[in-house]
TrEMBL record:
<keyword id="KW-1133">Transmembrane helix</keyword>
<keyword id="KW-0472">Membrane</keyword>
<feature type="transmembrane region" description="Helical">
    <location>
        <begin position="32"/>
        <end position="51"/>
    </location>
</feature>
<feature type="transmembrane region" description="Helical">
    <location>
        <begin position="63"/>
        <end position="81"/>
    </location>
</feature>
<keyword id="KW-0812">Transmembrane</keyword>
<dbReference type="InterPro" id="IPR051791">
    <property type="entry name" value="Pra-immunoreactive"/>
</dbReference>
<keyword id="KW-1003">Cell membrane</keyword>
<dbReference type="InterPro" id="IPR010432">
    <property type="entry name" value="RDD"/>
</dbReference>
<feature type="domain" description="RDD">
    <location>
        <begin position="18"/>
        <end position="147"/>
    </location>
</feature>
<dbReference type="Pfam" id="PF06271">
    <property type="entry name" value="RDD"/>
</dbReference>
<feature type="transmembrane region" description="Helical">
    <location>
        <begin position="109"/>
        <end position="133"/>
    </location>
</feature>
<protein>
    <submittedName>
        <fullName>RDD family protein</fullName>
    </submittedName>
</protein>
Length: 160
């Protein structure tokens, strides 16, 4: 069941369709491929180089670096383009849930930070159950709390 959100700013603009849970999960699975590449180049390769020099980075710092690197990638892409490569492939776009416009930088940061615990819940099945059975629009918790949503087959959005 896909619902639509309407844009309160312009009656001439058509309502957009929220992306289905199945499509968003497929895009998330596909997202692991480019994310792996980003992590390999910007996180793993430098760690291997440092270890080769005899520098041992504490495990906590390694994970913090990965969190920050992926954060820069996702927040930048969501804020500037509204979609990652995987989202483009699956014809999905991240928008502000209230206006239907591009999300703010603040919303992108909140979404990224809250996506981590939400994704861990998805891995355990709780996050999927939340989206499938609890949330009226089948949105993940991190989107609901960030005030964003993912739409299907996005029209050309106006950038701020």
């Amino acid at each position: 069941m896909n619902t639509a959100i309407s844009h309160p700013t312009a009656a001439a603009r058509p309502a957009v369709e929220l992306a289905s849970l199945r499509r968003r999960l497929a895009a998330m699975l596909y997202e692991s491929l480019p994310t792996f590449g980003v992590g390999a180049v910007t996180w793993f390769a430098p760690l291997v180089f440092l270890h080769g020099l005899g520098v041992n980075v504490p495990g906590g710092l390694e994970w913090l670096a990965l969190f920050l690197i992926l954060g820069v990638y996702f927040v930048f892409v969501w804020h500037k383009l509204g979609q990652t490569l995987a989202m483009q492939t699956w014809r999905l776009q991240l928008v502000d849930a209230t206006t239907g416009r591009a999300p703010t930088l603040r919303q992108c940061i909140i979404r990224y930070v809250l996506a981590w615990p939400s994704l861990l819940l998805i891995v355990s099945g709780v996050g999927i159950l939340w989206a499938a059975y609890v949330d009226r629009d089948r949105q993940f918790v991190h989107d609901r709390l960030a005030g964003t949503c993912v739409i299907f087959d996005p029209p050309q959005l106006t950038r701020r």
